[in-house]
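can u do me a favor
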């Protein structure tokens, strides 16, 4: 019996020693920084060996849709990025300037950007001299490398892109896509960032690059074209599918939506989704308002955080794409965010205005 116990404890000790790099990962020396997360914790199985391969490029079969007199967009699928869709699941737009196309979010790969530009060149044979980025998620800007290398374009975007991404990093798209879709894609830095909302004219087009701050991501911006009454909003608005709020905050999202609604526009292009008319932002407003109100109600009712996704189900959105995959996580993170929330001055002012109007 003693021998059996000795063997058992010996085996357990060996298992503990083998597992210790993962149990006490803060003290492990890692030579490959790509295997560490933002808190210097070891990420198991995170690094993907670089893939090589030849053959023809992935055919994205892109078709531009004209949104206004000088804005065309490519609309991605209402899905998560997969090898099967080659990352074509976000919206990318082109604004026709006097002597150049201006690109808003360049898509998930250099090959995507190359094929999108080929379609735009058929409409007007102009180069892309300026690229503008909405936020740091890589399905929206990995096409930048094509425009930097081939067109020498200037890239305007959030400083968070340069802070959080560096040459050689493996982003979600680089890990996910087949070689025939991601090959040739490089991470290139943003050339110019702004600290605050900025108005400018580029290639004959008046624009307002509006900072909404921490909303869907660490730093979100939208682009307003006042002469065209068009707003390009990135992922602070999605329709037809549930948003992923993994990096965002509910209050920030609602503040971003207020800023968008404050502009005079007839067409809005979401980061994901196909609705671009005056109702384009309605789903997002409703979704985040419901999350905020119902989670706060659950907190007031002392619902345990482990049970909040049962109490707040957002049944109105059950028929939207990615509901089962993303909505419970959004609700749980909203609980963590709102647990200490006690309102803000803007809300009080809005309530007072509503009372005065009534």
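np, heres the sequence
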């Amino acid at each position: 019996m003693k021998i059996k116990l000795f063997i058992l404890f010996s085996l357990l000790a060996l298992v503990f020693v083998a597992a210790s790099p993962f149990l006490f990962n803060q003290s492990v020396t890692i030579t490959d920084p790509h295997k560490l997360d933002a808190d210097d914790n070891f990420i198991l199985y995170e690094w993907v060996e670089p893939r090589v391969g030849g053959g023809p490029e992935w055919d994205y079969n892109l078709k531009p849709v004209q949104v206004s007199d000088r804005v065309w967009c490519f609309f991605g699928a209402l899905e998560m990025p997969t090898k099967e869709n080659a990352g074509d699941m976000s919206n990318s737009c082109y604004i026709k300037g006097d002597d150049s196309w201006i690109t808003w979010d360049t898509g998930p790969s250099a090959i995507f950007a190359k094929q999108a530009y080929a379609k735009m060149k058929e409409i007007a044979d102009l180069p892309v001299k300026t690229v503008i980025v909405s936020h740091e998620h890589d399905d929206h800007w990995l096409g930048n490398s094509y425009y930097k290398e081939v067109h020498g374009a200037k890239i305007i975007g959030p400083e968070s892109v340069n802070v959080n991404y560096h040459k050689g990093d493996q982003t979600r798209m680089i890990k996910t896509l087949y070689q025939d879709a991601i090959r040739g894609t490089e991470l290139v830095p943003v050339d110019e960032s702004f600290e605050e909302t900025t108005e400018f004219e580029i290639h004959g087009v008046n624009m307002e690059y509006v900072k909404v701050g921490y909303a869907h991501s660490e730093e979100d911006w939208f682009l307003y074209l006042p002469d065209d009454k068009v707003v390009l909003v990135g992922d602070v608005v999605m329709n037809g599918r549930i948003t992923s709020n993994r990096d965002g905050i509910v209050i920030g999202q609602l503040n971003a939506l207020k800023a968008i609604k404050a502009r005079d526009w007839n067409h809005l292009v979401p980061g994901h989704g196909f609705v671009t008319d005056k109702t384009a932002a309605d789903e997002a407003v409703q979704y985040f308002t419901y999350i905020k109100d119902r989670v706060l109600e659950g907190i007031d009712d002392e619902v345990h955080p482990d049970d909040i996704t049962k109490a707040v189900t957002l049944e109105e959105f059950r028929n939207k794409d990615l509901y089962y995959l993303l909505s419970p996580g959004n609700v749980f993170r909203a609980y963590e965010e709102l647990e200490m929330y006690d309102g803000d001055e803007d809300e009080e002012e809005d309530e007072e205005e509503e009372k005065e109007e009534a």
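The radius of gyration is 23 Å. hope that helps!!
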